Amino acid sequence: MKAVADPNSLPEMFRSPGAELNEGAEIARWLLRAAIARYVLAGFVKNRSGTGSLLDYMFNVVDPAVRKRHGVLVAFNVRQANRQLASGDIEADSPNFRELQYAFATLTDINASRFPATLDEIAWADPIARLFNPTVSKRGTQADCETTFVSHALAYFDSKTSKVDSDFARLFWQVVRV
After folding, report:
1. Is a pLDDT exceeding 60 seen at residue 141?
2. Interatomic CA distance for residues 78 and 62, integer angstroms
3. pLDDT of residue 177
4. Are residues 28 and 135 in contact, defined by beta-carbon separation less than 8 angstroms?
5. Which domain holds residue 97?
6. DSSP states along 63-108
7. Handedness of CA 83, 85, 89, 90 (dihedral sign)
8. Number of domains, the chain
9. Tell me, what's the pLDDT at 134?
10. How far apart are CA 176 and CA 178, in angstroms?
11. Nearest to 36 by CA among 69, 73, 79, 68
């Protein structure tokens, strides 16, 4: 995720003969959308008490907070990224790679730290680490953010609220796919 957010990275960074998504040329565009959605979903499953559905959370919590802290354009690009990932369709007039890269980097502050070198730094480099507090033991085992995030998401699927929250299910499974 840090490499995709790096302003020196190119949209074609994963180009490889035989790769999916146009010989790999489209992978970074989808990774950015999935990374943005994962960040939003992690916030939702961690802090969802009283927020209702995912759409309620996005409109009443995420959008106003992002607009206030990062501006209208970043908020728009976050909404577009989530909508496009959920639909599985990148429209021609969608935010370009650099706009999404900036939105992701700004939203998560992922570029504020150096590239991780130790297991502990790797665990804390995950953009959702602040929500799920990863732990690394001396033997290298860890409670990583991804496992904790998925665990919270699966618990939400078991809740009564999720039974009518098809937007959450669609976006979550798209993040898992990507």
Report:
1. no
2. 9
3. 93
4. no
5. 2-177
6. HHHHHHHH-HHHHHHHHHHHHHHHHT---TTS--HHHHHHHHHHHH
7. positive
8. 1
9. 76
10. 6
11. 79
CA distance 149 to 138: 23
User: Amino acid letter at 111?
Assistant: N
Angle (deg, nearest 10), helices 27-46 and 166-177: 130
**pTM across the whole model:** 0.89
Tokens 């802290």, located at residue:
69
Which residues, including other chains, have CB under 8 Å from residue 131's CB and lie 6 or more apart?
Answer: 42, 43, 46, 47, 145, 149
Distances (CA, A) of 35 to 32, 49, 52: 5, 23, 23
DSSP 131: H
Q: Tell me the C-alpha distance between 81 and 90, whole Å.
A: 9
